[in-house]
Amino acid sequence: MAEIKYLSEHYSKPEFKTLDGYKKHGGYEQLARALKMEPQKIIDEVKASGLRGRGGAGFATGVKWGFLPNNGEPRYLLCNADESEPGTFKDRLMMERAPHQLIEGMLISAFAIKSKKAYIYIRGEYMGPAAILEKAIAEAKAAGLIGKNILGSGFDCDLDLYLGAGAYICGEETGMISSLEGLKGQPKLKPPFPAVQGYLRKPTIVNNVETLAAVVPIIRDGAAGYRKYGTEKSAGTKLFSISGNVNKPGTYEVPLGYKLMDLINIECGGLKPGRKLKAVVPGGSSAPVITAEECEKATLDYECLAQMGTMLGSGAIIVIDDSNCMVDVLSTISHFYHHESCGQCTPCREGTGWMERIIHGIVHGHGNEGDLDLLIKIADNMKGRTICALSDAAALPVLSFVTKFRSEFEYFIREKKSQVRGGQIYAQLHH
Q1: pTM (2 d.p.)
Q2: Which of 186, 57, 28, 36 is nearest to 111 (CA)?
């Protein structure tokens, strides 16, 4: 088994991002087909496909659609394109190379859930992808694919792009909804969940870019065709963004259930000469790190990684070789989550800052005996005690790094320098 270009089959063709080029490769044929189907039939097909949210949560997409109340209220479809977790960039490729694939997937999904208004919410730093999407949306509107009476079906749906200010927390679905409503981008208490009371307090479905794009081949090939790839519980293919110490970082599409080490050694060309694998963060910087020994047993599916105490997340794999100091890596991660905490919940607002200050102290040679146990205690008290999952996202890396690489942290505290880099980090920080 190797890389499979199922979703990304035409991404290497420059014309694919234009309307004419997309149509040349069968673009919008599945929209025309879907508009002749019963909406419930589309939802049933997506349910049967086993498609799970590709943004990180991994919740069953068709099941989520089924939560919408049938109360006659207007309903909205929101595409979460706020790709902001360190190491995550696979949706960017999709938006840059195949904007019409996303639009077609959104229109099919909007028809299925009977939504007449859809938005793509994209982070402010993604100026390039935003420009490409704006152009594609304009092309689709001019061609009658967005707007009134789409393809003569009687279905009306408007679709617009919304550029956020750029905040990690706006990738959380209720934080994104707040931002889209013109409010501060802070998460909301759940329940009610967005499917019941979301954007403008109306029923709302929030799906990720890759999730919505995957609806197109599901309509084309049917649920059984989609299930040819992946495992029973983790169906289909997935795009993974690989960064860190590999020879060929980038975005790769493989079937779920693919061996992690095959992705690193075959698709990514292995590690730099002379280096050994030390650890991998498998699902974005919030995912607990796994050791090199654990990597040998890891397959890229929701179940295997959950059994290892980590998660598939958004599919952002960060490879760490033996030249890296884990104290330094955790210091960078902790700084990010403290910076991005919205400050709404005390455990997150205070906990992220407290953890960052302790790790910062260790890196600067001011660590104390008891710091590691205190870090674990703080992280344990942050989990599950806030409105959204950012607090957990900050706590889980701390717990896994300190637990699995404790000897490096202890050495740094005792010797006032890195076990891996000697005094290099300390020297760099002071000069």
Answers
A1: 0.94
A2: 36
